[in-house]
């Protein structure tokens, strides 16, 4: 729950403390198993209306967590705001900031003067919600590879059970970028009568084959690291940091665009005015940057969670799972007003994917809006282009029916 931002910059929700809730019932999973107990880490911002009708659920991407806004009361050593341009944007204050701080708060895109915003760590996570690093009550040891394989639908059912425990029946909106956008779309399909509006940013109804391939490389880099130990590395003193670091490097490059890399790094050398003729050390600034990203990531993230979450987003396919191969049939029951935002330079979740969703919804006579923002930073635009997304989202949520 957030505390008043009396000494913070305008628009800040202030100091925020992550809370935890244990679900009273097992969660039924697509793989056929049930999971119990399940703990959910979450944060809230703003005030819940007496009618409980002003709730926005914010869903995070692959490497995010429940800390979406404000300054963490107990910040960890590494920030989730560790992507492209984060240090330029945040400076030293970034360590404790939520991953979507520029979007959540008084007067921001998700305006906490009007809405009660909830952010949860997704099922399978490693930042407070039950996942592979959690203790399996049957053995007293971390689940590791015994954790059930999960889907985006499982994540959403867990969020639904969590909201039930809070006494919240309906969402004014559900929103997210990337994997978070997949969750938002899944909400509208699974619980069509319980969502008034959805905001899916830099997302898709099914990851394109190139995205599936890049995720496979990242997962293989972890599993081929001998320190992974078939997923049972907890308590051994060794973790697959090298493999996960490589996976993060691969993933991070897919989040960017060639022009963004050219603009930020070019072919500038890192340490000298001439080549040092070394194989083992970085020669170029971009090489050093990727190593820094890898080193930061492995300090805050669990390798098994990366495997499970990556697999879940590659499984996601609304047409196959809900429409017998037809996207229009999968979206037929959606009743939420839909805002899709895409970015021109995003080749991992390209605008064409959002256009396919828009065309399917429009063909069904559903209220839908697509905004394609011209920006050079690739997939990471959904985190970097907050100022340009804000007026679009504020206008959309101000329309009748959003709250």
Give your account of this protein's structure.
- This protein is an alpha/beta fold.
- It has 13 helices and 16 strands.
- The chain has an eight-stranded mixed β-sheet with strand order 2-5-10-6-13-14-15-16, sandwiched between helices. It has a two-stranded parallel ribbon with strand order 1-7. A two-stranded antiparallel sheet has the order 3-4.
- Strand 13 (173-177), helix 3 and strand 14 form a beta-alpha-beta unit.
- Helix 5 packs across helix 7.
- It starts with 14 loop residues before the first strand and ends in a 5-residue tail after the last helix.
Residue stretches low in confidence (pLDDT < 50, at least 5 long) are none
Mean pLDDT: 93
Helix and strand pattern = EEEEEEEHEEEEEHEHEHHHHHHHEHEHH
Distance between the termini: 21 Å
Number of strands: 16
What Rg is obtained from the alpha carbons, in whole angstroms? 20 Å
Structural class: alpha/beta
**Percent range for β-strand residues:** 5-15%
Residue share in helix: 25-40%
Shape descriptor reads globular
**Physical arrangement of strands within the biggest beta sheet:** 2-5-10-6-13-14-15-16
Sheet with the most strands?
A: 8 strands, mixed
- Work out the helix count: 13
């Amino acid at each position: 729950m957030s505390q008043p931002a009396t000494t913070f910059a305008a628009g800040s929700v202030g100091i925020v403390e992550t809370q935890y809730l244990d679900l009273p019932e097992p969660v039924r999973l697509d793989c056929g198993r049930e999971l119990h107990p399940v703990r959910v880490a979450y944060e809230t911002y703003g005030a819940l209306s007496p009618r409980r009708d002003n709730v926005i659920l914010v869903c995070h991407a692959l490497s995010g967590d429940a800390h979406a806004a404000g300054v963490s009361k107990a910040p960890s050593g590494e920030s989730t705001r560790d992507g492209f341009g984060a240090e330029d944007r945040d400076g030293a204050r970034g360590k404790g900031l939520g991953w979507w701080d520029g979007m959540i708060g008084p007067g921001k895109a998700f305006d906490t003067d009007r809405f009660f915003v909830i952010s949860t760590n997704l099922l399978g996570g490693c930042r407070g919600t039950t996942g592979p690093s959690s203790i399996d009550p049957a053995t007293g040891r971390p689940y590791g590879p015994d954790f059930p394989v999960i889907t985006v639908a499982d994540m959403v059912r867990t969020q639904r059970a969590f909201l039930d425990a809070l006494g919240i029946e309906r969402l004014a909106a559900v929103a997210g970028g990337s994997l978070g956008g997949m969750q938002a779309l899944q909400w509208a399909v699974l619980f069509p009568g319980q969502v008034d509006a959805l905001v899916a940013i830099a997302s898709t109804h099914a990851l394109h084959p190139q995205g599936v391939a890049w995720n496979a490389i990242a997962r293989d880099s972890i599993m081929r690291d001998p320190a992974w130990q078939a997923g049972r590395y907890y308590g051994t003193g060794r973790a697959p940091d090298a493999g996960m670091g490589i996976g993060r490097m691969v993933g991070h490059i897919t989040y960017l665009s060639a022009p963004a890399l050219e603009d930020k790094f070019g072919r500038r050398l890192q340490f000298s005015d001439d080549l040092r003729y070394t194989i083992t050390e970085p020669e170029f600034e971009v090489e050093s940057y990727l190593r820094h990203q890898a080193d930061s990531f492995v300090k805050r993230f669990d390798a098994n969670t990366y495997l499970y979450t990556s697999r879940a987003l590659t499984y996601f396919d609304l047409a196959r799972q809900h429409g017998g191969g037809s996207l229009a049939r999968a979206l037929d029951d959606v009743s939420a007003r839909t805002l899709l935002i895409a970015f021109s330079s995003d080749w991992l979740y390209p605008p064409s994917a959002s256009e396919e969703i828009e065309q399917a919804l429009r063909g069904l006579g559903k209220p839908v809006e697509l905004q394609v923002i011209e920006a050079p930073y690739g997939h990471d635009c959904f985190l970097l282009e907050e100022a340009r997304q804000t007026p679009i989202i504020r206008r959309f949520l101000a329309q009748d029916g959003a709250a």
